[in-house]
Amino acid sequence: MSQETYELKAEARERVGKGSSRELRRNGMIPAVIYGDKQAPLSIALSTNEVTKRIHAGGFMTTIATIDVGGQKIQVLPKDYQLDPVRDFTMHVDFLRVSGNTEVTVDVPVHFENEDKSAIKQGGVLNVVRHTVEFICPANQIPEFITVDLSGAKVGDSIHISAVKLPKGVRPVITDRDFTIATIVAPAAGVEEEVTEEAPASEAE
Hints:
The chain is α+β, with helices and mostly antiparallel strands and 205 residues long. The protein has 2 domains: 6-99, CATH 2.40.240.10; 104-204, RNA Polymerase Alpha Subunit, Chain A, domain 2 (Beta Complex). It is built from 3 helices and 13 strands; from the N terminus they run E-H-E-E-H-E-E-E-E-E-E-E-E-E-E-H. The longest helix is centred in the C-terminal third of the chain and has 16 residues, at 189-204.
C-alpha cells in the first residue's frame, strides 16, 4: 500500500485568475482546485512549503490526503501539478475528491527484485520498458509500487504484466494485450550491432 495519509490546511479562494494566483505565490501560497465526486470545483490556496515537502517526500501522486478547508475536511488524491520551468517551484495543484468506493487511475512505479538470481549476475542487462504502469484501483488501495521478481530470468527473456502478482482490486488500464515491462538483453553485443548497422548510413551521407 502507499504511504500513510496526511493533512494539509487550505484557504478557500474567492478570487481566481492570473493576477490572484501571482499574488498568492508572492505570499508563499499555491493556488489549487478540488474537483470530482459530482460536486462543483472548489478553488483553494495551500502553503507552498507544505506542498513542496510532500512532493519531494515521494508517493505524492499515489497517496490520499485530507485537505482542511475552514474546518471542512475533504479526502483527495493529487491528479496533477505544474512546476515553473525555470525556477522549478510548484505553480498549481489539481486534486480529485475521493471516497471509500471511488476508483482512480494512477501511474504506479515498478520495482525489481532478485537481480542476483537472474542472468544479470552473469552480465545480462536489464532493459526496463516501463518504469511505471497505469492501473485502475480503489482510491484507498493504491499500491506504492509493484514488484517484478527476476528470479531465473535469462538473456532473451521478456517479463510481462501477467507475471506480476497484483494486489486485490488492482488491474492494468491496458487489457487488450499482455504488455512487456522489461527484458533481459545481452551486454555490449547489442550495442556493437547497432554501431555496425548505422555505419554504412553515415558513410553514405
